[in-house]
Amino acid sequence: MIPRELTIQEASAGLQKKVFSSVELTHHCFDILKKKNASLNAFMTVCEESAMGEAQAADDLIAKGRHARLTGIPFSVKDAICTRGIRSTGSAKILDTYVPPFDATVVQKIRSAGAVLVGKTNCDAFGHGASNENSMYGPVRNPYDETKVSGGSSGGSAVSVATGMSLFSIAEDTGGSIRQPASFCGIYGLRPSYGRNSRYGVMPMASSLDTVGPMARSVADIALLMEVMAGHDPKDATTVNDTVPAYVKNLDAPFTPLRVGIPDEYFETEGMDEETRTIVLRAIDDIQSHGHTLTRVSLPYTKYAIPVYYILVPSEDSSNLGRLDGIRYGVQKQGETLFDTYAESRAAGFPEEVKRRIMIGTYALSAGYYDAYYRKAQKVRTLLCQDFDRVFHDVDLLVTPTSPFPAFGVGEKTHDVLAMYLADIFAAPASLAGLPGLSVPVGNTKGGLPVGMQIIGKRLDESTVFHFAHHLSLT
To answer: What is the pTM of this model?
Structure first.
């Protein structure tokens, strides 16, 4: 019998000891997928035939003693990340038939390490959303309560890991798209430092914020995946040319008490759920009991993070999505003129939220409003970054709620755009500053919904984040 809650390291040990085979493990994931995916809607494309072939090849390598770090481990990939020979739609109809001829760099690294690709997961179209209700293929539902959302935009990835349809998932985070669904679904999710992982092969949303990161069931799994994924990529000029730290080895380094900052602004936000606040504060009390020093800090520009985010991101969206016109690739709607073809292809191929962001971004970048909106937002972004720089002179880490509330009802916020945007209020600041943020599960509400706590580190200092989180999870 294969346990449902296996971590990568537990599964790898089971494979090496011949407790089960990769074929059996992969078949187990597909059994869960077939039982649950119809109601949860986590997967866009299922790769059962190719996955079983990859699993058999993994077993052959294990038998010969030639296995790699992830050999035989089933995983999923967010549909906004390109996979060679496998349909990649970004959950938007305009790319309904798009099959990339290449793997994204991070996917290529994961597959080279021997992992078995189960399929592509549903998401908010092109990453635009905080609930996974903006997919043109239907919302992803929360496995703890199917009347609730899974979180967005990487909701399908979170659900695939939380339910055991895959042991880990590779997803993308611009303003909270990994951390928030990880919180809603009770798993671990990392937004790495900007530049730590390659973005090559990721459908771009906002190029100055987009990151690619892992979602898994333990800190140790996240650390392992980052060792495989991270590093300089000549195909992505934004990647840093630093040596990738030995994240896994560093997990077992001797315990060192840390200075942990608790930002006042993250606990005084209007509309924050009281039960979520209580659960996170209880987890913070536990941090102090483990010998760490807690310090109250202030990040005054936090209140501007959402307005800044929703000027800069749509602006970059409007530029990046200009390539999707139904002409070069994707689905084309034939119009009487070239303009009609563009207009009808985009009208049918983009959901409302994507259109909204393109319009906002185009407006903010227009000649008469560039200085008033885009330029000013960039200046405030710099002030927000300076907020973090100042605070990190006095503390080693920051701890906050991941989301101001647990998973909300499907349809509850779809007609209140501002309320939906505020779902990322605690995740967006670290994104704007390019900092690493790890969401860890810290408890459940009385209704049984998971609550996550966010650990924010200094740029390129994922090691300290991992060591801190791992120590907390062991004690």
So the answer is: 0.96
